[in-house]
Amino acid sequence: MKTRILVAAMLVMALGLVVAGGGGQSQATGPQQVTLDILAYGDNSTREGQDWNRLVAEFQAANPTIRIESEMLYDQAYHQKVEARLAAGDVPDMAYMWVDAQGQAWRDSNQFVDHRPFLNPDFYDLSLIDPMGPNGEIFQVPLGTSNITSVLFVNTALLSELGLSVPRTYAEMVAMVPAATAAGKEVVAFAGAEGWVWNSCLLGTVVGRVSGDGNWISKAMAGQYKFTDKPFVDSLAFLQQMVEDGVLSNSVVLTDYGAALSSFVNGNALFMLDGQWRAGGIEDPALQANVQMIPFPALPGESTSVANSASGVTSVGYGLTAKGASDPAVRDAALKFMEFFNSPANTTTRLADGAIVAPILKNFQAPADLPLLVKEKANFMGRMGVTSNVVDAFVPGEANNVLNTGMQNIAIGRATPAEVAAQVERLARQ
Amino acid sequence: MGKRSRSDAVAYVSMVGPALLVYLLIVAYPVLNSVVISFTNFNPIAGTAPEFTGLANYRRMLQDPDFWHAFRNNMVVVGISVFGQIPIGFVLAYILFRKLVRGQAFFQAMVFLPNFLSTIVIGILWRRIFLANGPVSRVLQAVSGDPSAQFTMMLYPETVMIPIGFALIWIYTGFFMIIFLANLQKIDLGLLEAAQIDGATEFQVFFKIIVPMLASVLLINAILAIAGSLKGFDLIFSMTTQGIQRDNAMVLPIFMYQKAFLDRSNSVRFAYGAAISNAIVLISIAIILFANFVGKKLGAQEDM
After folding, report:
1. The complex's ipTM?
2. pLDDT at B123 exceeding the cut of 60
């Protein structure tokens, strides 16, 4: 008898679990509601992540018929989740998307969809959005204009203190090494412990300058050039030269992303080489007033056509997936949310936070009270020449990983530029 | 079947069934599916039907020098765990058990403390310790008088496992110490006192009485250490930066992760990743069987 009671109790409990689970689902959507499944990018501990949560709450409060189910992940966890969800066929309606080599999974699964027919030309300035496909397609609404990945931040106060001035050429930077060393300062703070930093923040600019062609990398991937060609090998050799000259310290490969910023903001380095987004990490107003953002100084013998060039890439942003676009109700809800997300007020916040260089909105008026470094970004864009390719936007997977590690090995003298170039060429063609 | 045994069977099935079902769905099915996938060109992102490719993924893995590099590093981690963490944990437990130091509770808490911390936090902590101009480099600069001296072991494949091994010992020794200590406390103290009355030294008590009595615990700890070492991912991943450090310190789980999730140029990366996962399982089973064999030869039984 006791056994029967026990069995009956367990069955009731199991049934209760099933009903409870099902009940939760049935309450999720009302008959009039549209549910948007969004894969978001960010981290709850960062401003970007906190803003996302706030925006979702505000949008839902203003649009009770649209329910947003968002999953927010950051960095590698995000990319891994994209792979896992697409592999499992669990495609979100909308997602934060890269459209270059990092967004390969979206392309492979045919989830990119051209947004041009859906975007309101009175709201977005379509001429400011980089084309993302061979026919000018727009696969996502970028957060801003091109993302400049290679900027030299200059501590002008420290330079003055040492009797130096903002360099125009690489030779002038080399000439600063003795004074910096004597003062116990680094010349360039650079997070060389992170392979991607060599790739995104330095190599693309150097290849563009050395080759005289900002699109050298994309042309190499298209088969027009080889990575074993002289411009690429010379570009890698230049990285080695920077370490030998003392422009990059001999400990550069041990300096992680946080340490490089820390070195610069604490006045231990004359310059910092990083992406434009790093301006947001310079929080001290006194330091901001003394920071100038410039393109990397002229390399020896560089062509005037690439003077002041810097590497840049199409900005990331949120886009509809093919699955989301296939349902008109979901598509309209997503487009409505995108306009809210990119509203002038929200874009201004992003601009002030340093997340973007410039907005893509029609007739956008930037407020006058933006932080100093945001204004300095505008100055930087005025100083900058053409945009050159960012290597990891074109070179995929294993070839890119080998290149990242190879540049670090070159810096510590464990590999030659020719060896690394040969490995990249072999893997890029596989 | 009698009425009694029928009701027993119903009770048994109703109690074991749900857990078994969950196990089959969540553990057994993915494992078996992973084996199947590893013999195909499975590419779910492209949505194409998988085709049988035989041992192609396994052949590719064995021909990949990175696999052997990761395998070698994993064996170093196994060695550090079995021949570092376990003996040190055993000796520390013995010192505490025999009250050879004062403040046993303090030392016990301190050695076990890392187990309360997130492995990722510990990894970041150790990464900072070994960074350029980090605490270790500062000590080197002070000792050598060279302000440019840096701790560079993290940069070279020949030396990277030394600082990582140090961190591994720091974290996990306390875990094994607690297991040893719990088992030491089950030993009849009268036995040890009798040995000492008969003239046995502390050294003899340890090797002639304690070690043989805890042989089975040693075996269990060795199995735990081996299994933990082969699936270890988080500490090494968080302790290294992306690029040369992580490549140098690559162990099999990181190798699998990089090939399955990051190598977007490989259209069959999931199938390849499945093959690597299965290889990790096979290597674990082989080493655990070997440890069991050695343990049995030494008279240890898997009971605690």
Report:
1. 0.80
2. yes
Question: Residue A190 domain-assigned?
Answer: yes
The domain that holds B246 is classified in CATH as: 1.10.3720.10
- HEC-encoded secondary structure of A346-394: HHHHHHHHCCCCCCCECCCCCCCCCCHHHHHHHHHHHHCCCEEECHHHC
The reply to whether B52 falls in a domain is no
Assess whether A138 and A165 both reside in one domain.
no
Q: Which two tokens stand for residue A214?
A: 């900002």
pLDDT over 90 percentage in chain A: 69
What's the pLDDT tens digit per position in B212-224?
Answer: 888 888 888 888 8
* pLDDT(A27) > 70: no
How many Å lie between the alpha carbon of B77 and the closest alpha carbon of chain A?
Answer: 23
Q: Which of B146, B148, B241 to mutate to test the interface with A (most CBs of A within 10 A)?
A: B241
Structure tokens at A51: 């803003």
The residue with tokens 């690559």 is B250
> Do A247 and A227 reside in the same domain of the chain?
yes
Together in a domain, A221 and A139: no
- Which residues span the domain enclosing A104? 34-146+314-364
The token duo for B6 is: 């029928």
Q: A260 at the B interface (CB within 8 A)?
A: no
Q: CB distance from A196 to chain B under 8 Å? A: yes
CB A34 within 8 A of CB A330: yes
> B40, B242, B250: best mutation site toward chain A, by most A Cβ within 10 Å?
B242
Instruction: Tell me: do A167 and A242 sit in the same domain.
Output: yes
Q: Are residues A213 and A93 in the same domain?
A: no
pLDDT of amino acid B216? 87
Q: How many CB pairs under 8 A join A and B?
A: 115
Q: Are A40 and A72 in contact (CB under 8 A)?
A: yes
The Cα of B14 is separated from the nearest Cα of chain A by a number of Å equal to 7
- pLDDT score at B302: 52
- Residue A19's pLDDT is 45
If you count them, how many residues does chain A have? 430
Q: How close does chain A come to B11, measured CA to CA in Å?
A: 6
Quick one: which of A94, A19, A26, A71 has its CA closest to A322? A94
Q: Is the pLDDT of residue A18 over 50?
A: no
Domain count, chain A: 2
Nearest-CB residue to B245 (from A105, A193, A414): A193
Which chain A residues are closer than 8 Å to B152 by Cβ?
Answer: 254, 412
Interchain contact, B244 vs A409, CB within 8 Å:
yes
**Which of A329, A346, A364 delimits the end of a domain?**
A364
Within a domain: B180: yes
Whether residues B244 and A195 touch (CB distance < 8 A) is answered with yes
pLDDT at A255: 93
In a domain, B192, yes or no: yes
Count of all residues that appear for chain B in the document:
304
Domain hosting B229: range is 66-118+157-297
Inside any domain, residue A21:
no
For chain B, what is the domain count? 1
